[in-house]
User: Fold this.
Amino acid sequence: MEPSLESAVEVRSYLGPADERTLAEDVLDGLTRPLKELPPKHLYDARGSELFDAICELPEYYQTRTERLILRTEADAIVARTGAVELVELGSGSADKTRVLLDAMNHAGTLRRYVPVDVSETTLRAAAATLVGDYPGLSVHGVVGDFERHLGHLPEPLHRRLFAFLGGTIGNFPPGSRRRFLRRLRKVMSPDDHLLLGTDLVKDPQVLEAAYNDSAGVTARFNLNVLHVLNRELGANFDVDRFEHVAFFDRKREWIEMRLRATEQQHVRVQALELDVDFAPREELRTEISAKFTPERLREDLRAAGLRLTELYTDPDELFAVSLSGQG
Ligand code: SAH
Ligand code: AVI
Assistant:
C-alpha cells in the first residue's frame, strides 16, 4: 500500500487561568521592585509577534538572515548527523527559518512530525496550518504553552528528535535560569536526541546597539506594546505615549538590555491587581535582556546542563552561531 500523504494538525493549549495568574504575579513582583522589571514572554501577544516578525526583516537586525544562512549551509549535515525524524521547536514563532530544516529532513526522506511550542497561540496556529499545506504527509502537533513550564506535555517521541531553539531566544534568560532551563531540557531529551541552539555572538557594541535601536522604530513599538498588553489584560492605565524605548549593550555583562523609560513623573493603576505604581521622571522598567555569547560561554553553559557540544556552525563574519549538542 502507498504510504498516506495526508497531513494532520493537532494543537493543544496548556495556557489557562493559571497563566493569567502568571502575568499578574510577574507584574506584581516586577513592578514593585526597586529596579522595575517584566519577563520578556509578555511581549508576544498577537501584535507583539507581528512586530517581532517585522524586526526580523530590518536591515539592522542581522540575526535572522545570518542564522538562516548558517542553516541553509549546514542543514543537510545536521540532518545526516542526527538522523532526526521529528523536529521539536521551542519558541517557534512564525516558523520561517524552520523550513530550511524541514526541507533538509524531507529531502533525506526522514521527516515525519513537527512539534512547535510557543506561548503565542495565533502565531503557532497560523504556522501549523501553512506548514501542513506545504509539506504533504507532515504531521504537526502544536503545544501552546510556556517552554519553562510545559515541556512535560510534548508528545511521546516517534523516534530520534532534533530539538531546535533558534533566533537567540536562549539569550533572553538571565544566566542562572538559562542553565536551569537547559538542564531541564536535557532531562526531557532521550539519549539519541540532539539540540540545535541559535545564539547571537559578542561583537562590536555599535552593531549590537543598532540592531535594537532600528531607524524605522519597529523595536520601539515592539517594546512599548507590552504596556498595551498590561492595559488590556490587567486593566492597567499606562499612558503609552509617556514612555520611550531604551536599548543599550551592557559591556560588562555582555547583554543587551531593553527598557521603557517614563518621560515624566507618573502614576499608574493596575485595576485587576488593585496595585498603584509610581514612576519617577526618567525611571526605567526593564523588559528584556538579550545575552550575547562567546563559544567558550556557550560550551560551558551546555556542559553545566549535561550537554556536549559536537558542532559549532557560524557565518564568515562570526556574527551568529548555531550549535549542535547531544548527551553523548
Ligand atoms: N524562533 C523564531 C521566533 C523567535 S521570537 C525565530 O527564530 O525567529 C521568540 C519566540 O518565543 C516568540 O514566538 C515567543 O512567542 C516565544 N516565547 C517567548 N517566551 C516564551 C515562553 N516562555 N514559552 C514559550 N514561548 C515563548
Ligand atoms: C527573540 N529574541 C531572541 C529577540 C532578541 O534579539 O533578543 C527579541 C528582540 N528584542 C528586541 N529585538 C528583538
